[in-house]
Amino acid sequence: PVSFAGQVLRQRQDVARDTAGAPVARVGMTGFYGLATLVLTGEARRSHAEFIEPRRPIRFGAAWGGTGAFELVVRASGLYVGKEAFAPTLGLVEANAVSSGATSAMIGLNWYWNRWVWVQSTFEHTVFSQALPLGANGRRLGWQEVAGGRATVMW
């Protein structure tokens, strides 16, 4: 009932504005993610791309019952863009308006009702490499938190 996944990204890409004769820069990017899941009710996970089939699916109607399957998920990820992308001579981005990177941590709980219905809830905390401006009043955003949920029905 425990699974892990991860990936590391390291690349360089030639970028330029969409104008004839615009200067080209080779911009480096690095990133990563690590993911761990634990199925609390003991079901096996064969792949991160498929549903978990609960041992005790929730049943509706006359035979009401079951609890479904519960899965705890944690993830850490980050993406960082090289300083070359922010060079004023390129004009790709307004350097004071964006961050060159972000790192986030997420925890979530998935509830699989049966083979076709899945409910997900998550909480994510993200820290930006540079604080982002919030309007003309001088306030800046150095981090953000998001709580979310969704329901999926497959057929």
What does this structure look like?
With 155 residues, this protein is mainly beta. It contains no helices and six strands. Strands 1-2-3-4-5-6 form a six-stranded antiparallel beta sheet, with no helix packed on it. Strand 4 (101-112) and strand 5 form a beta hairpin. It is elongated and about 70 Å long. The mean pLDDT is 91.
What is the chain-wise order of helices and strands? Answer: EEEEEE
Number of H/I helices: 0
Rg from Cα = 22 Å
Secondary-structure-derived class:
mainly beta
Strand content: over 45%
Q: Could you give the order of strands across the largest sheet?
A: 1-2-3-4-5-6
What is the distance, rounded to the nearest whole angstrom, between the alpha carbons of the first and last residues?
25 Å
Biggest pleated sheet? 6 strands, antiparallel
- Residue ranges: pLDDT <50 for 5 or more in a row? none
Please tell me what the overall shape is.
elongated
- Averaged pLDDT: 91
List how many beta strands DSSP finds: 6
**Relative helix content:** under 10%
